[in-house]
Amino acid sequence: MGVYTFVCRNSGGEWTAKQHSGEIEASAATTYELQRQLVAAASAADSASGVQSSFAMVSPNSAVFQVVVGAVGGGAMMVSGGAAAGGGASSGGAAAEAPKEEKVEEKEESDDDMGFSLFD
């Protein structure tokens, strides 16, 4: 499992990102495009399947983006956070089946007689 943290800055309408402790860099016109490039670069650097990411604006012109490779079982990819949020896309590999939940009907409690009245 690899964790990649990037510092993102907007200057002149162009977003740039540099890895906090590493050599991965990227630039794009929008934060969404930047996130996609960084996820692709981090995935290429780490052979584990499954990617999870988080994007957080620190100020109008700076943000922090973190990619965790190998954190999600079954190869699911999720990009989330900030003003530009992506959806879940499936990468190669068989997805692990979620355990089936049994439906349990709950009895609704009657509010008719609680043993006291609010207006007494």
Automatic annotation (TrEMBL):
Location of region: Disordered: 84-120
Classification via InterPro entries: Ribosomal_P1/P2, RPP3
Keyword Ribosomal protein: yes
GO cellular component, one term: ribonucleoprotein complex
Keywords: Ribonucleoprotein, Ribosomal protein
Any GO BP: translational elongation
GO molecular function terms noted in the UniProt entry: structural constituent of ribosome
Similarity comment: family membership: Belongs to the eukaryotic ribosomal protein P1/P2 family.
Function description: Plays an important role in the elongation step of protein synthesis.
Protein name per UniProt: 60S acidic ribosomal protein P3
UniProt organism field: Eragrostis curvula
Lineage, highest ranks first: Eukaryota, Viridiplantae, Streptophyta, Embryophyta, Tracheophyta
